[in-house]
Design brief:
The chain is mostly helical. The chain has helices at about 1-10, 15-30, 35-65, 65-90, 100-125, 135-150, 165-190, 215-250, 260-265, 270-280, 285-310, 325-340, 345-365; strands at about 130, 345. Helix content is about 75%, strand content about 0%. It is a multi-pass membrane protein.
Length: about 375
């Protein structure tokens, strides 16, 4: 009987893990975490990520696509924004470029890392994967506009010295980011919802998997609440171990911008795992919805939040990308365009995206 109870508790780990993570977060918040404790927090962080993915999939099965991908992308990005702002407020002058570094890292991770992994996994199992080119083309166009207005133009404006934007320019970028993101969400969920469904489902039953049993409303609401709890725990625990991460990076002689890359990697773990699982089930459209949706949410929600936080933040806010990152951004847009336009992809496209992502990581460590 005891074994059955143990198995029942083990089967419910996705319910207990977020609560345990928040409890641990309350103990370590605002305190210096020792190296040994940091390892334990990192393990709990990974478990919380897996729990967040599970609950996001439950919500996704209930609401269907593209709402399921949108729920996870927005939830993760809202917490990411809170993490960036809190680190910038407490970090002082050394964090003036943290928002830029984290947002750009998120774009590279999603548009090259997640897309590349999903395409490789999908094409290794099915040789050629198909997706809706209309929706992915619209998503990529929005990402290109958001990234250019928010990250590329400040590197060339002359109102302020250095890669910074004037208050008026930052205000315009914030309004444009919110407006473009809202317009995309309207297109994705209302006016052209079919564009973001798998080609075989467009025009058919929206979001209903052929063999997927929809969770009950009660289970869906519970999973939604636990998803938010898990995401808060993920970002909170990531912030708790961030001093240990910064110390390790400094000891290794790595540049400060690597902190933004590490933050983006941690926060985007739930979407990465969810995208990989979708690709293994030959649902590459969901993988791309997650990747591109996360990139848009990262820019469209972070830049307005940083613009508002700029009222309280001291010192300049560095947003403009350097020449190396501008080249990587342009290369990403070109390659992604050539990938999504045909509506089909092979192993080659996945490999190209992964090598561009590898180049980004290499240049982040050794600029």
């Amino acid at each position: 009987m005891s074994r059955l109870r143990v198995r029942a508790w083990a089967a419910q780990w996705t319910w207990f893990a977020p609560i345990l993570a928040v409890a641990v977060l309350s103990l370590v918040w605002g305190r210096t975490v020792s190296p040994v404790a940091a390892v334990g927090v990192a393990v709990l962080l990974a478990v919380s990520v897996l729990a967040a993915v599970h609950h996001a999939e439950v919500v996704s099965q209930r609401v269907g696509e593209p709402f399921g991908s949108l729920v996870l992308a927005v939830a993760v990005t809202v917490i990411e924004v809170a993490l960036i702002v809190s680190l910038m407020i407490s970090g002082g002058a050394k964090t003036v470029s943290l928002a830029r570094d984290t947002v750009f890292a998120a774009v590279m991770i999603t548009c090259n890392g997640i897309v590349g992994i999903a395409l490789v996994i999908g094409t290794l199992r099915h040789r050629v994967v198909a997706f809706n080119a209309e929706g992915m083309g619209a998503a990529l166009a929005t990402i290109a506009a958001l990234a250019t207005l928010s990250l590329a133009l400040p590197a060339f404006t002359i109102s302020r010295p250095g890669p910074t934007a004037s208050p008026g320019q930052l205000g315009f970028a914030a309004v444009a980011s919110l407006a473009l993101y809202a317009l995309f969400v309207l297109t994705q969920t209302v006016r052209h919802r079919d564009y973001f469904l798998p080609p075989e489902q467009a025009g058919g039953a929206i979001g209903a998997g052929e063999h997927v049993v929809r969770p009950s409303p009660r289970r869906t609401l519970s999973s939604l609440a636990l998803l938010l709890v898990a995401l808060v725990a993920v970002v909170g625990l990531a912030k708790a171990v961030s001093p240990a991460i910064e110390s390790a990076l400094a000891a290794a002689g790595l540049p400060q911008k690597v902190v933004g890359v590490v933050i983006a990697l941690l926060v985007l773990l739930p979407e990465t795992i969810a995208a990989v699982r979708a690709a293994r089930r030959d649902r590459i459209q969901i993988s791309l919805n997650l990747a591109f949706g996360s990139a848009m949410a990262s820019i469209g929600l972070t830049i307005p939040a940083i613009a508002m936080a700029g009222i309280w933040l001291r010192g300049p806010l560095v947003l403009g990308l350097g020449p190396t990152h501008l080249i990587l951004l342009a290369l990403t847009v070109v390659i992604a365009t050539l990938t999504v336009v045909p509506g089909r992809a092979t192993l080659l496209q996945g490999g190209v995206h992964l090598f561009v992502f590898a180049a980004f990581l290499t240049l982040a460590v050794s600029p």
